[in-house]
Specification:
Shape: flat
Strand content: under 5%
Distance between the termini: 27 Å
Structural class: mainly alpha
Largest sheet: 2 strands, antiparallel
Mean pLDDT: 95
Low-confidence stretches: none
Strand order of the largest sheet: 1-2
């Protein structure tokens, strides 16, 4: 096993984990929840999902051979809430994640130190992956935070519920020592 293959395995798992947090939040939300925003300076879940989809398609299509900011991308339009249904939003969300995960699945260890560009700026593939991981985790965190606010007492925790840390730890320890 090489460090490159281990990194690619781990980063795929991490991207899938971030996606799962978004999926589990979106599944808890009603259609009207997707368009809620605190104020005009804020983004709704629908806008964030649309932005992520647009970013992923731009960054991960032809990843090794073309600039990550595609001419066809209209980033400003991603921040217009014109999503007509939850299903439309999920389709955009899934297309972006599929583009990312398919591209990651095609990368090989020797690709990690290759140079690519994003908006004309050089990055190693490794740097570009880390850049996007931070970006996507940031926005999925926003989606989760909005979801928690909207669902309030009806929120189904995505991690260890408050007050259950010790119980969770003991279950994990028991599982790994059995």
């Amino acid at each position: 096993m090489s460090i490159g293959s281990e990194y690619l395995k781990v980063v795929k798992e991490r991207f899938n984990s971030v996606k799962s947090l978004g999926d589990k939040t979106i599944n808890q939300l009603l259609e009207e929840d997707l368009h809620w925003k605190l104020n005009e300076a804020s983004n709704s879940v629908a806008i964030i999902a649309k932005h992520l989809g647009g970013n992923m398609i731009s960054r991960w299509s032809d990843f090794l051979t073309s600039d990550g900011e595609k001419i066809s991308r209209n980033r400003d339009q991603e921040f217009e809430d014109d999503i007509s249904s939850k299903q439309e939003m999920i389709t955009i969300w899934e297309k972006g994640w599929k583009t990312l995960l398919d591209t990651l699945g095609e990368l090989e260890c020797q690709d990690l130190l290759k140079n690519i560009t994003i908006r004309g700026e050089d990055h190693t593939v490794l740097e570009a992956i880390e850049r996007q991981m931070a970006h996507y985790a940031y926005h999925v965190g926003q989606i989760v935070y909005i979801g928690k606010q909207l669902k309030d007492d009806n929120w189904e925790s995505l991690s260890i519920p408050k007050g259950n840390s010790e119980e969770y730890l003991q279950r994990k320890l028991k599982k790994h020592h059995s």
